[in-house]
Amino acid sequence: MKELRGRLAFNAALLQRFLAEAGALMRGQQKALLSFDEVRSAARMEGQSYRGLREIPVAQIRGTVGRVGDFDASFLPARPHLRERWARLDTAMRRGEAIPPIEVYQLAGAYFVKDGHHRVSVARQLGQATIAARVIEVRTRAPLDGEIDAEQLLRAREYADFLERTRLDRVRPQATVEVSRLGQYDRILEHILGHRYFLGLEQGREVPIPEAAASWYDHVYLPVIQLIREYRILEVFQGRTEADLFLWITARWLELSKMGRPTGPAEAIADILFEVEGLPEPSASLRALVREWLGPPRRWIRALPGSARGPRPSGASRDMRH
């Protein structure tokens, strides 16, 4: 009777998986288990360490080593041939029998099953919050978080390629340059290559890219980032990163220069804060902060209350709206 219940539970899980997949397909939200091989390849695995036996959250088991087609993203069984073993485990776990720990790789806050897929599947169906696991922690060159998805993997691949080209993480181990959108690391690399060109003219030699990257980080990137942090600019543009704002600020800096207006990172930030479309009216405290920061009010800040906005070049705020 208990074995029959296990088979019925498997059939129910298989049906649940079918219905979930059909619904996700109709909504365009179909998901599969994350592949450990794809993730470590994208983020560039650099090493691993055994962390011992632990109780890990079942909900944070997000991927698999080699069994993407056997279970879906919720670890519901996807193939009928899994029935016998799944049903036996269901019966044993309902009885409270001792079950061997699973084996997982840990990447940031996500776990990938090396051994124990059936156990995870049954545990999820039974509503278990945790499961015993032998954990191997994996280090990657590009950082990841627990919410790994396809877009984050593409960004991780771009970041890893960027780091391999510039070696910024080697020459400046404390550096973290993370963007929120694809394609931005090419723009940052252009900044570094431009800095390298002028550095070479100044020093009369060909400057290696890693050396130029270190100089760019120290003398170009960090000063802008320090302004962003000091004046808490990220609070205004939530969902963006410091590197996103760096690219936007430097683009506006160049824009102001071409218009013959006072220019620099502070001026670019103030111009963005007061003139970008879609921002609410600046508060009195923010207006006071920018005035204090920039010194006496400057005529070019034309978005202040009581003054007319100056003409905006087309596409001026494109970088942050899209």
Secondary structure tally, helices: 12
Separation of termini?
Answer: 59 Å
Mean pLDDT rating? 80
The largest sheet, given as strand count, sense and whether it forms a barrel, is:
6 strands, mixed
The beta-strand count equals 6
C-alpha geometry: elongated
- Rg calc: 26 Å
Give helix and strand order, one letter per element, not per position.
HEHEEHEEHEHHHHHHHH
Overview of this protein structure:
α8 packs across α9. A 6-stranded mixed sheet has the order 1-3-5-4-6-2, sandwiched between helices. The model is unreliable at 17-30 and 295-322 (pLDDT under 50). It has helices spanning 2-27, 36-43, 83-95, 117-125, 150-166, 168-171, 184-203, 209-230, 242-258, 265-275, 284-294, 318-321; strands at residues 34-35, 45-57, 61-64, 102-107, 110-115, 130-140. A hairpin with a 2-residue loop joins β4 and β5. It has 12 helices and 6 strands. The longest helix has 26 residues, at 2-27. By secondary structure, it is of the alpha/beta class. The chain folds into 2 domains: 2-140, Conserved hypothetical protein from pyrococcus furiosus pfu- 392566-001, ParB domain (Alpha-Beta Complex), CATH 3.90.1530; 150-321, no CATH class. It is elongated, with a radius of gyration of 26 Å.
